[in-house]
Fold this protein.
Amino acid sequence: MKHAQRKSRTPRQYGLVAGSGFRDFGGDSAAHVVDTEFGKPSSPVRELEYGEHRVFLIARHGDDLHIPAHRVNYRANMAALKKLGVDSVVAINTVGVIGGQLQPGQLAVPSQLIDYTWGRDHSIYDGESANLTHIDFTEPFCAELRQGILDAAETAGIACHGGGVYAVTQGPRLETGAEVRRLANDGADFVGMTALPEASLAMELGMRYACLSLIVNFAAGYGPKAIHEDLEAHTATAKMQSMKVLRQFFHEVY
């Protein structure tokens, strides 16, 4: 059943955080060098144009993809978007799929997270803030934002799976087969490295957040090919479909 297009009730300023499959995304756009109390973000913040509207973009791993997932300054990235007035963040992640229900090359909008990372700066509250808040992280993603992405995918004619649990691992290495079996036993459907602490930081900063996940491989032990063969075969397809979804999404929400 096709959903009706949803318009935001209030004007929104959108931000995008792009992952490793988007090396050339926004490369020639106007850029802002933004300093934050947590340091510099991974890249200059670029302005993408969707019609008459602008969307602020950060390249999560840097312009040259030199920043691994466990070394990304997630606090600076989220704080820089907030400083530019962003109130809604769409994060693009690449993930492996656990099990055989979905296939590499497809898209998903996860609904839950499990954190397996360590040593990352997970909070803006570092002992110097007098306004410590324990956020309610029961629902880590914004339901309205998730539904908007799914509606845009449907309108654009792109298959996009709604729901599922995203397991966030430390990286930069990929997981062992035994580790992925543990993730499956824990209820995970996807495995990636970047949705946390992005999601919790966005919530602490008062920004809506949702992931558009590009399924680029089967997780370790679940596919017939070597993982890097999957990545090479399916990343471009998933990226192309995600770009169509994003164009439709920003057409609808503005």
About this structure: The longest strand covers residues 208-218. The chain has one domain: 14-253. The first helix runs from residue 74 to 83. The mean pLDDT is 92.
